[in-house]
Amino acid sequence: MQYTLATLAFALGVSASVLKRQDAANCFEIEVSGSTPARVGQLDDGQLRVGNFPAKTFRADGNKITDDQNRGCVLTGDPGQFQCDQGAAPAEIFSGQPEGDLKHDNDGAFFVCEADQSSFIVTTKATQAKCYPVTLKAVKSDCRTESSSSSSSTSTTSTTVVSTGPLPDECPVDLNGDYEFPHLIGPIDKDIPDKQTGTTLYGQVTPGISTIFNFDVPTKYAGRRCTLNFFLPTNEAVGNTANTLSGSGKVEFSQLNQVASQQTTYNSAPAEKEVFVVEQVGFGFAKNIKSIDCPAGNTVSFKLESVEGTDLFYRQDYAQPPTGPVGLFLRVC
What we know:
6-stranded antiparallel beta barrel, single chain, about 40% strand
């Protein structure tokens, strides 16, 4: 069966053009090849996105890739989401750059999967129905840093929005507006206290396991309100029985006093800055947990842990009702 990106390209209004290389450095842009090609951009937090984003420039260093902010590019979690993280060592698994078909571990399989109504993430596995197999092609480009990009190409993504009126106390309990998906979801286990969290798409709490969530808050959210929202729809709505809940159903939400990382362990986890609330969750639960002034330009870490024997396991998903969303999100208003 032949797959195309025609629908994606027309829906998102992306351009097939790429910049021509003007110097000898190993810089390139990434083109998503299909019957209608598209180019790859980024969110402020480093996630690669296909949509109405300016094309981003990447740099090849052997089998490693960094972005134009010198962040190391990696494949994270079970779906292998392609992103570039501040302070991360670039994964030594890529080939084909700076010119040619991009591969990971000598495998050219990539997918674009719907993130929201206007963009797609890039992964190495199909994680949902709206995922499409693609080829990523490295196209040589002149080397640029984010600060040297033209104002015409960045004005739509770098505008700082500052509220001129009173901020709302809470944002709506939905994802029908600006929101952030966690950039790190990492379990810590007191029975294996030196095991590093890594990152995954699964939230898990048991009497011995807690999960830490990192949200990278873009600078454009300065002066706005951020609400931590938690969703746990019924398995009937989600369409599977993978999400499980037993015990008292009580869980504790807290903010940590420092930022966690993929190297964080149970023993090294930051202390709690503030315990927000203990909630008794159940299937069908959807609620604002805590509202704060958006920490624009910063990363913030939260923790979810078991109270009175709760055992909860779910797959984080940004899908719209009735199948989602599922998990912890930072809603912006």
